[in-house]
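Protocol step 4 of 6: structure prediction from sequence.
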Amino acid sequence: MTIAAPTLDAAHAFPHVRRPSVTDVADNSNTESVPVIDAWLNHLEPGNALSFHGVCASAQPYLVAKIAERARGRPIVVVTPNLKAQESFQQDLETWLNPPSAGKKKKELVKARNTTLFFPSWEILPHEDKLPHADVISERLETLQALKTSSVKRAPIVVASVEAVTQHTYQPDQLVERSRIMRKGDTIDPLDLVEWLEDQHYDSEVQVNQKSELAMRGGIIDVFPPTSAWPVRLEFFGDELESLRLFDPVSQVSRESVDEVDLSPAGELGILKRIHEAAPDDNLGSLLDYLPADAVIVFANPEAIDEHVGEYEEQVPEDDPFHIGYDVLRRAIEQAGLVTIELNEAPAEDGQTYFASLDDFRPLGEHAPDPQIAEAQRREFFAQLHRWLRQGFEVQVCCNNEGERQRFGEIWDEMGFKGRNAKPKAVIGTLGRGFLFEAGNLVVVTDAEIFGRYKIQRPRRLKSRHAAAARSAFDIDFTELEDGDLVVHFEHGIGRYCGLVKLPVPKRRNEPDAEPQTQECLSIEYAARDPDQPRPKLYVPATEAHLVSKYVGAGKVRPPLSVLGGTRWSKAKEQAERAVRDLAADLLQVQAKREAEEGYSFGEDTAWQREFEGSFLFDETPDQLVAIEAAKTDLEKPKPMDRLVCGDVGFGKTEVAIRSAFKAVMAGKQVAILVPTTVLAQQHYNTFTERMADYPFRIELLSRFRTKKRQKEVIGDLANGSVDIVVGTHRLVQNDVVFKDLGLVVIDEEQRFGVMHKEKFKRLRTHVDVLTLSATPIPRTLYLALTGARDMSTIQTPPQDRLPVQTTVCEYDERVIKTAIQRERNRGGQVFFLHNRVTTIDHMRARLAEIVPDARVVVGHGQMKADDLEEVMTKFVNGEADVLLSTTIIESGLDIPNANTIIIDRADRFGLSQLYQLRGRVGRYKNQAFAYLLLPRHAKLLTDVRKRMSAIKQYAQLGSGFKIAMRDLEIRGAGNLLGAQQSGHITAVGFDLYCQLLKQSVSSLKGEKVKPRASTHMSLDFLAIGFEGLPAPDDPKMDTAAANLPLDYVPEPEQRVQIYRRIAQATDRAEIVSLDKELRDRFGPVPKPVELLLLAAEIKLIASARQVTNLETKGDRLMITRNGDFIQFGGKFPRLNKKNAQPKLKEIKRLLMSL
């Protein structure tokens, strides 16, 4: 039966009812009923269908929390129209179920009685040739498992989109079959376990970095279950599971031991397809299969759900076996006798709205007006809050954090309401919008409606350690070698890498019966002295891999291969050394001049600064905090700041600039924000205005989006000091712009400005504080920063919940375009379509109108009138258009959280850094983002284009900006960025060696001590370092023991080379100890050859630290040379008394330590 909501007349007969507060919702012991809600909720018997009208969207989570309170112990499923609505509903519901506190003394959140679970859709169309992201699978499986094991005490509330509930999943028994709990002491053959895991769609890899991967090394299995926050290392002794340890996917080092791990299936759609192919008649499961008979299903905004379902089902093929028709689902719910509740925004039949939004009372909207208008609007809204208080309403102001709560209190007092009896109750919690519940005498207001800041972080849903995993992308690594790559050997010059080979080692004379030995080597081809002769090859032992790096040049010219033993390489190296010394001297002179210049020393943080920083709506990442602190410390010094903040797109560089600007303005200084494009200027202006809305600062914009008259006014006000912060394009560095007291210049994406502007920036740097932001640093800033000639901060950690962008490179195909746009619209998102030719952009618009007739398409490009372009951008930002068809005006820094698909037409015409920047426009929030790089049909791609396309796919992980910059340098070369002369030297010796030489020059000119790598030459006749196939160490019949990484211990060649490289590059004994610990953890107990290898490396470091140049043994005699002189003990060479390798090494170590 359908029960309409009762009228509210009865409610007014209860004047004694206490007004509810936010905390009432979840605190059962305190809850007093609200009659109108009670009247509604007296009908929660199975089979009933309730329909509530006049409930605004922002109040629906509050009502669901009330339903949860009444339906105690019964699971609730909330169905929303799309992903966007689902996320915002869950966030608000979390706040109502975990009541916010009214200050710091109380806990911010009390223990929730209900858990909320997020059940997402696959975010792809079932018939697409794609699989859902591992984190999406993780959330779906967590929900199913929680429902399967739910109890009266912890009945979950599931928030799902309508797409998610109409997608098939496992039947409960199928999920049980495909899950397994492993406990310490369990017995299973490790190979059988690996086979079972592969059957559950885990991918076998060399090393586990991401969810749904597994790796096996001897008796150790690493596995990353989708429902786990960390991967787990299972260590077996035979068939017995001896230990379970969680480990960090970046360092690969264990974090903590656990007693058990739940191995859930790694896939869903892929496995369902397999189940369906094997038995097409077998039913697949749905979310309904996991619900008990007394479950409650809530439809939030059924009209919007119906509308969305209609559009979605048009895109799904009729015979799609993985889709459940919405009508079929509703009938199944009815047949199961589940309670259903519809929450409608439309007023009831009597025209009444029971829960009203606050829009009629003019709170500050999402796109705040000019500061003066905003201030007047805020004053008016505060007066309304005061009226409600006088009328006896409970007014709750929900603030994101303590900073916002304090600032609200200050403004309330400033508005003249201080000292009056009634005051709103400011609490800490996260809500999207407020509402008015007249029958319950309750008004809920959010700080966003007071300050106009709506970028609220959703609750943390995803659990992958992407933040940590991204760090690996920042190892600026020249070691990723592929066959055919040019490489540089420090001593022999430029050669061509031909792969890893195993070479037989000649037997020693005194060991004719010894087993054959091999040594793993990097094979490098060099030029022949005589062109008619075959090219010779140099075989570099893996233990000396640190001497080889990838060649990256400074232009398209391929350098000639060096001749082994020739003089050309040593001459090129000498010339480069002289050149870098001159360059280092110039750079340091600029830096010294800046340091000698007297700058302005800003004071320490004020109370307002702390309050402002406390009101940040997101959690700062650790790197971000370090960068902010470094910038503020620079500002407090008396010398001018020149800091480069380098972070990937969307990693929070702007917040560093905002806090630095706030500090400068608090000291009475002016701030200039320089950006490369008009569109980005507008966005930064909006961001700064929004962040500083509740402070009395004047922020202005200077770009072609402003009329000539307005520009003239702003320039005048900059000169008289009435403008505090100005955001602008290159217009800001023109001669007519004069500041009264400029204190800080922030330059965003410096590499996109012209040479003339850069010269002006250089002049600025000697007397004004300069903060430069860059996402993909151009090689110049990169190498300057790396070589100590400039202060640099890197933000390497992505914000929580960030997922890498799924990148597809394909030929132009209108079916792909249609699918991509439809998928994004299904989840309530928007699309960037990049077509970089103004002459044909209107034709492209007409094609899009045919491909997706329902989509609202707007066009934007740089040749449009400023007003028209501004109008287009505003429409798109406000969500009034589905697709922005534009040129590269969107390239820099544009931040539209709701746009999560980008389609780039003719991607072959863009440079790698440009493609990376463009792709960075999406995936800035936590939804899976998609990038499509469309290439012309049947086109033969140039080698460079092919390399760019493979690189952009290769560097899909988060935080790849540094690697992209290096790849771009490699593909396009450094050109004339360093001047022709320096480019010549880079071509001659390669970028890596050039940077090393420059770093050394800078350090020596600065008088810094450089920690050397171990440089002692070591020849120990009782030890074969790096050889394989040797007898067991310390075999009394043999003279030589092996010191290496055995194949059966570290099976992968790349991993062995990497470990050898790390051993050779170690600069102190602590690194060797740390590596020893890591090897034991990752590969199991360390065999004798590895122990000897690490001990030999430690001895080499001790010898180097004592300036020993040569260390040699002959039989029992030890010869130690320092600067050509033998070191003798009592006038004799020391003798080694021990017979076996390990005691001998320890003896040598003791002797060296005594020097």
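Step 5 (inspection) to follow. The domain at 180-263 is CATH 3.30.2060.10 (Penicillin-binding protein 1b fold).
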